[in-house]
UniProtKB/TrEMBL annotation:
InterPro entries: DsrEFH-like (IPR027396), Sulphur_relay_DsrE/F-like (IPR003787). Gene3D superfamilies: DsrEFH-like. Coiled coil: none annotated. One of its GO terms (cellular component) is cytosol. It holds the Pfam family DsrE. This is DsrE family protein. It comes from Candidatus Desulfacyla euxinica.
């Protein structure tokens, strides 16, 4: 099976890119592919575990938890995390470590396909 890398640069509710990320990753995992995501810029907000929204809508963080449970590997850019005051990802869901551009470079070199959102 293939390894698919996905770069996500936007946070929740800015656009629907987090949902596209989730649907693409889920479909790939269901077909037996490996999925690795790198969250850059505001995408690091997708990992904050205390998300709230006034309406009864699925929260992005809940979608990401399910992907991790299915085997997706997700890394958040550590510089982006700290620049946004997220203290190294202390408030992130389990399974989303802060990393760096070397992790992204590894993802690119090891992936059979790279999608950017």
């Amino acid at each position: 099976m293939a390894k698919i890398g996905i770069l996500l640069t936007e946070g929740p509710w800015q656009t629907e890119n987090y949902e596209i990320f989730a649907r693409l990753a889920e479909a790939a995992l269901d077909k037996g592919h490996e999925v690795e995501g790198f969250w850059y810029l505001d995408a690091v907000y997708n990992a904050v575990k205390h998300q709230k929204f006034p309406e009864d809508v699925p929260l992005p963080v809940e979608r990401m938890k399910k992907l991790i449970e299915k085997g997706a590997k997700i890394i958040a850019c550590g510089i982006c995390v700290n620049a946004r005051g997220l203290e190294g990802g202390k408030e992130f869901i389990e399974g989303v470590p802060a990393g760096g551009l070397p992790d992204f470079a590894d993802m690119i070199s090891e992936s059979d396909a790279l999608v950017t959102l």
